[in-house]
Amino acid sequence: MSKILIVAEHLNGQLNASTAKCVTAAGKLSPEAIDILVLAADAAGIAAQAAQIAGVSRVLTVERAENAQSLSAVLAPQVAKAAAGYSHVFGPSTTFGKDLMPRVAALLGVPQVSDLMEVVDAQTFKRPVYAGNAIVTVSAPAGAIVATVRTASFPAAAEGGGASVEALSLDVALPTHTRFVELKAGKSDRPDLQTASRVVSGGRALGSADSFRIIYSLADKLGAGVGASRAAVDAGYVPNDMQVGQTGKIIAPELYIAIGISGAIQHLTGIKDAGTIVAINKDAEAPIFEIADFGLVGDLFTLVPELEAALG
């Protein structure tokens, strides 16, 4: 019977939604238990949030001053130590998880499955390759497995759980060769792109950074996050942290509106798990229309203001 440990991702005392998505993925194995590991300097608030996720058996906390920042070199030895007795160790396929989980797998001497998007059985999983153009089935050898979960492929587990919270004491020496200097992060009043239920994205057809104001305006009307195609980012219209796609952020909002985006395969890979896709483009043959649920063919500078006006 599987027993799964999930490493919680958090920042500034808030649990990232990716953790609840990992719980959903873990649930596909019908495990004996799903435990969440919270590593922090002060874990109480984060642990309380994790305990509310349905399906979680226990929340294990490790409080150390060294855990004040999520440094993978510092966290990995602790995760590896805590993983004793677990059949699977999951982390999100985010910047946090991609940095941390390979170190954990190396310390444990076990295989890692990256970007897990579907669970077949306890040792077999599906994951995308070639920018999402193909899906491969991978089978890990018997024994413990470390995996990063492609969060766009799984909905967040519901709240309403009541897991117990237990402090964990780990006798593990931490490396000193890595130290925290500073964290620089963009600030926005809009919803976070990777967790927003609605996202409006603009492409190169906007023509300039100034023209992106109509994207921001529509997004504000919808209470949506704002994204962009790689072409728009490369053109300098918006910063690269707004890029959606295989080489940017892979997202799965309930509603995705693509404006002036032709639909290169790398972009489509990043949005294929969206609930409803709406495309606005003057080219009726644009690839984006092949996957769009609703499409508007015409001048975006005319259609977008009309759409915003219709929203009231």
TrEMBL record:
<keyword id="KW-0285">Flavoprotein</keyword>
<keyword id="KW-0249">Electron transport</keyword>
<dbReference type="InterPro" id="IPR014729">
    <property type="entry name" value="Rossmann-like_a/b/a_fold"/>
</dbReference>
<dbReference type="GO" id="GO:0009055">
    <property type="term" value="F:electron transfer activity"/>
</dbReference>
<keyword id="KW-0274">FAD</keyword>
<feature type="binding site">
    <location>
        <begin position="260"/>
        <end position="267"/>
    </location>
    <ligand>
        <name>FAD</name>
    </ligand>
</feature>
<dbReference type="InterPro" id="IPR018206">
    <property type="entry name" value="ETF_asu_C_CS"/>
</dbReference>
<dbReference type="Pfam" id="PF01012">
    <property type="entry name" value="ETF"/>
</dbReference>
<dbReference type="InterPro" id="IPR014731">
    <property type="entry name" value="ETF_asu_C"/>
</dbReference>
<feature type="binding site">
    <location>
        <position position="204"/>
    </location>
    <ligand>
        <name>FAD</name>
    </ligand>
</feature>
<feature type="binding site">
    <location>
        <begin position="243"/>
        <end position="247"/>
    </location>
    <ligand>
        <name>FAD</name>
    </ligand>
</feature>
<dbReference type="InterPro" id="IPR029035">
    <property type="entry name" value="DHS-like_NAD/FAD-binding_dom"/>
</dbReference>
<comment type="function">
    <text>The electron transfer flavoprotein serves as a specific electron acceptor for other dehydrogenases. It transfers the electrons to the main respiratory chain via ETF-ubiquinone oxidoreductase (ETF dehydrogenase).</text>
</comment>
<comment type="similarity">
    <text>Belongs to the ETF alpha-subunit/FixB family.</text>
</comment>
<protein>
    <recommendedName>
        <fullName>Electron transfer flavoprotein subunit alpha</fullName>
    </recommendedName>
</protein>
<dbReference type="InterPro" id="IPR033947">
    <property type="entry name" value="ETF_alpha_N"/>
</dbReference>
<feature type="domain" description="Electron transfer flavoprotein alpha/beta-subunit N-terminal">
    <location>
        <begin position="4"/>
        <end position="184"/>
    </location>
</feature>
<feature type="binding site">
    <location>
        <position position="281"/>
    </location>
    <ligand>
        <name>FAD</name>
    </ligand>
</feature>
<dbReference type="InterPro" id="IPR001308">
    <property type="entry name" value="ETF_a/FixB"/>
</dbReference>
<feature type="binding site">
    <location>
        <begin position="229"/>
        <end position="230"/>
    </location>
    <ligand>
        <name>FAD</name>
    </ligand>
</feature>
<dbReference type="GO" id="GO:0050660">
    <property type="term" value="F:flavin adenine dinucleotide binding"/>
</dbReference>
<dbReference type="InterPro" id="IPR014730">
    <property type="entry name" value="ETF_a/b_N"/>
</dbReference>
<keyword id="KW-0813">Transport</keyword>
<dbReference type="Pfam" id="PF00766">
    <property type="entry name" value="ETF_alpha"/>
</dbReference>
<dbReference type="GO" id="GO:0033539">
    <property type="term" value="P:fatty acid beta-oxidation using acyl-CoA dehydrogenase"/>
</dbReference>
